[in-house]
């Protein structure tokens, strides 16, 4: 029941697909919130995700699991759900897109394939990486690519940032998900495809001027500073377009000035995990930066301030010999009436909708399933009911 879990619970309760709902977490913070959940007809339990047997038993009592734990637990919960024959929706990849160690990749892939086989044998669905980004962006990407015979370029953007009125600190940025995870994502190597060739961008050069660009969004009427945020070699394989797409990249976006700041910070070593000695104590620069930014109110949303969730997918090429360009866009704002950020809406509502579709039998794919398999028309109406609009332009 972290930030995204609250969004998922709000949506599950609001749309009444399920007759019974259990939320699980652990720790003193959660215990203090239990009475509030009970008053809403929700069963609340304290559970440590490291406690495999209790976790297995809890999963087996239910028809669908929505898993929003830290990434290190995702595959474990998926394996237990498959063994129990219980459907599951997760916002996490089972194999991180920044994975570079080939031995670890092979081991994790073998485990995922075993989980897939078990889920198919037990006739259940494990829909993974199905939040905002990853999730909705991959679903929209599959739809856009499905409209093309030949692909010249495929670019996707997934981002969260403050609306202009909330840009009142030096970074023009505030946290709407884990600060540490945000900073970890700021310092990792990526891969892009340029003229059919895979090009690696080292972590140290992620924010260098040659690796960033400005995108002007007409709806927001503002410039967004974009930087690479994914391994396009892996994404091309996931979409089934390896060797077919000429140019491909995946980006995140921030208000202008963000990239220049973090380019300097990275070059100075502020996001490295390796500790340095400070007065006899070993201190990780990454942990220091996380603690420093987390502790300051200026980097958190105040009441009535809104974040913007931004997804844009752009594919161009040809269809039956004619040039075609497809652009899907989602622009969503926090909802002060419910107290939910846009990030909570786009992640939490998405996993909730998917859980409902699976429970009702509207989505029937079995095994470990990626967002590309989710038909756009199944999700579009449900998102619209929640005031989340997909705008499509075909040229």
Automatic annotation (TrEMBL):
Keywords: Oxidoreductase
Every Saccharopine dehydrogenase-like C-terminal domain range: 131-375
GO cellular component: cytoplasm
InterPro entries per the UniProt record, alphabetical: AASS (IPR051168), NAD(P)-bd_dom_sf (IPR036291), Sacchrp_dh-like_C (IPR032095), Sacchrp_dh_NADP-bd (IPR005097)
Keyword presence, Oxidoreductase: yes
PANTHER family linked to this entry: ALPHA-AMINOADIPIC SEMIALDEHYDE SYNTHASE, MITOCHONDRIAL, SACCHAROPINE DEHYDROGENASE
Name the record gives this protein: Saccharopine dehydrogenase
Species of origin: Desulfovibrio porci
Taxon lineage: Bacteria, Pseudomonadati, Thermodesulfobacteriota, Desulfovibrionia, Desulfovibrionales
